[in-house]
Amino acid sequence: MEHPLRAPEASESTQYFSQRALAERIAASRSFQSSPRLRNFLLYVADCALRDVPGEATEQHIGMHVFQRPPGYNSSEDNIVRTNARLLRQKLAEHFSEEGSQEEVILEIPKGHYLPVFRPRTPHEGLSTLPLPSAVSIAIESPPSPLRRQWPGVWIAAALGVLFIAGVAGTLGWKHHRARQNVVDRFWAPFLSGPSLVIYSNALFVGDSATGMHYAPRGATPDDLISGEYVDTYTGIGELASVYDLTRLFDGRRAQFTLKRSLLVAWDEARTENLIFIGSVAENPSLRVLPDTMNFSLISGDGWSGIENRQPKPDELPLYSRPEHPLTRDYAILALLPGLEPGRKALVFSGLMTMGTQAAVEFACHSEGVQQILRVAGAPDGSVRSFEAVLETTLGGGVPLETRLVAIHLR
Questions:
Q1: HEC string of the chain?
Q2: How far apart are CA 145 and CA 152, in angstroms?
Q3: What is the pLDDT of residue 369?
Q4: For 377-394, how does the pLDDT look when each residue is reduced to its tens digit (9 = 90+)?
Q5: The predicted structure's pLDDT at residue 125
Q6: CA-CA distances (angstroms) from residue 292 to 184, 347, 387?
Q7: Which terminal residue of the chain has fewer beta carbons within 10 Å of its beta carbon, N or C?
Q8: Distance between terminal CA atoms of the chain?
Q9: Can you give the pTM of this predicted structure?
Q10: Under 8 Å between Cβ of 302 and 324
């Protein structure tokens, strides 16, 4: 879940406000845009430091509050916090050497600890030096003594020049920031402006939690099984996290969607809506009503699964298959397809595993991911053309960490 920093009390010091603002700037920086989990990690531990509650920045607390681990989970066997702490330290170092190179205060997480510290930038780390604007250079290079009387006017002109340059740069920077936000709105426009139905995977299992559950025979429906011998109320943790991400996206734009599990979808009603499918076709029977994807399809064999690339381009693989041991990578299909009725659209997020599905939704909810899609699928009129894409995500501690686009075809 997202961990925004808590609002300060009126009695808190100026230092609190400046450190709080620094943490928020880092979380909003480019370094963290493609890593929502590391951003949540950062905001959670920064909040602990600002409230001076080091007891809440332990491995157990972080695992529970940031990575949704159950209370009392075995952190010696589940190293998700340690893995992501290492990545977070790398991200922070990268941020302060690049985008945050002008910050006078550095936030860092000492090795062996999870509670961050705020410290002044040391002289040897210095602030990065930027070239002076040309208007200032002109003033410095002005002729000496004969024009000494005119220096006040020259400095005024230089100052006005600097202000003008700063104003232009600020305007361009704001426009760039807005453009980064608007690419997400552009991608999701049909779903934000019209009735949308989110359908999540609802696999059919046989057995129970005491004796063990396994998938029902392929193609089976509840009508094929004896009541009480099947379970149809489970979905994956990745699907759950995906619905959370979609809720944040829609709520942030004051839009709504209807949520249903796959086995409960009534297609006479759904035909008139935009559709968002979350989960593998193997666990999402509703996907079968859509036209088959033309370029990519999920296939499996004895103990393995992958995504077949039916028409590979020169720089693409014919098969994207995850390693089984150790499980360090997953793949997902992300597709924008025509809906069931004219004027409607359908989005498909279908991972080989639940983590691939989750990574695909996160990818499409952030500007960096959407920009990669729009470079190929963006139309001149501002719409998005139908496409099919394959995403690769690296895994660590049982969660997706980084996701990249490895193949995209227009339909």
A1: CCCCCCCCCCCCCHHHHHHHHHHHHHHCCHHHHCCHHHHHHHHHHHHHHHCCCHHHCCHHHHHHHCCCCCCCCCCCCCCHHHHHHHHHHHHHHHHHHCCCCCCCEEEECCCCCCCCEEEECCHHHCCCCCCCCHHHHHHHCCCCHHHHHHHHHHHHHHHHHHHHHHHHHHHHHHHHHHHHHHHHHHHHHHHHHCCEEEEECCCCEEEECCCEEEECCCCCCHHHCCCCCEECCCCCHHHHHHHHHHHHHHHCCCCCCEEEEHHHCCHHHHCCCEEEEECCCCCCHHHHHCCCCCCEEEEEECCEEEEEECCCCCCCCCEEECCCCCCCEEEEEEEEEECCCCCCEEEEEEECCHHHHHHHHHHHCCHHHHHHHHHHHECCCCCECCEEEEEEEEEECCEEEEEEEEEEEEC
A2: 13
A3: 92
A4: 999 999 999 999 999 998
A5: 64
A6: 26, 13, 13
A7: N
A8: 35
A9: 0.58
A10: no
User: Are the CB atoms for 159 and 132 separated by under 8 Å?
Assistant: no
* Structure-token pair, residue 370: 């959407």
Placement of tokens 């991608």 in the chain: 187
Task: For residue 301, give both structure tokens.
Answer: 């064999």
Tokens, residue 135: 């208007």
106, amino acid identity: I
Percent share of the chain, pLDDT over 70? 73
CA 270 to chain CA mean position, Å: 28
Cβ-count burial of 24 within 10 angstroms (0-12 exposed, 13-18 middle, 19+ buried)? middle
